[in-house]
Specification:
229 residues; alpha+beta; 434 Repressor (Amino-terminal Domain); 6-stranded mixed beta sheet
Length: 229
């Protein structure tokens, strides 16, 4: 099976630098949502941000009582734009503050354009955005970004099987021989606590054959890589 080419991620403003400062669980969850967006899938926890039109999604990640939010758009076919990343300080309500929505709206207009040129970068200077490497986990500075992407793809496959079999989280936990919070973490992309070996074992427990193919690295590429097809 051919590995799909992920869409590049464009990090607007200070979004990348800000996300890098957040707790690992938050980076994992947002990174997983963006990975899915890169390959044309949708994170189940991503919700449309009202008032900004189609294709603008928000991920809300909680960590030890704090709430972190990331807003991105999949409106354009060739790129994923990260529009805003912030921590919601107010304890009142769950809605996104209007001031933050206005900033998202400004970045959406300034960077993504409208009409035939939609999707082209039109911000003033490259200082206003960062073009991602193609691997969102490398952008975030993970020590082993290819392994993180492979784990994300395995988690996606596991989640699809759980959904196809219509298993509750408690039922899935029983099949996978873990507790229910582990299933919740897996489905949310919080994968730092899971090894590749463990995720492969989950697939086997769910009734999937797993075939590992080892090939010689092409001379045209400087280093070998890890892929999950």
């Amino acid at each position: 099976m051919t590995q799909r080419s992920p869409k590049p991620v464009i990090w607007l403003g200070d979004t990348l630098a800000t996300l890098r400062t957040y707790p690992q669980d938050v980076q994992d969850e947002v990174g997983y949502a963006l990975y899915l967006a890169q390959i044309g899938a949708k994170y189940e926890g991503a919700k449309p941000l009202k008032g900004l039109g189609p294709g603008v999604l928000e991920v809300i990640a909680d960590h030890r009582g704090d709430t972190y939010r990331a807003v991105y758009t999949v409106r354009f076919a060739e790129r994923v734009y990260v529009l805003h990343v912030f921590q919601k300080k107010s304890k009142k309500g769950i809605s996104t503050p209007q001031s933050q929505i206005e900033l998202v709206r400004q970045r959406l207009k300034a960077s993504c354009g409208v009409g035939p040129e939609a999707g082209a970068l039109t911000m003033a200077t490259k200082k206003d955005y960062v073009v991602g490497s193609g691997n969102v986990f490398a952008d975030l500075g993970y020590a082993r970004p290819e392994e993180a992407a492979a784990k994300a793809e395995l988690a996606r496959k596991i989640t699809k099987i759980i959904e196809r079999r219509k298993l509750t989280q408690a039922e899935a936990a029983n099949v996978l021989e873990v507790d229910q919070p582990k299933v919740s973490a897996l489905k949310r992309g919080k994968l730092s606590g899971f090894s590749l070996d463990r995720l492969v074992r989950f697939l086997v427990l769910l009734g999937s054959d797993v075939q590992i193919v080892v090939k010689r690295q092409p001379r045209s590429r400087r280093r070998a890589r890890l892929l999950v097809a």
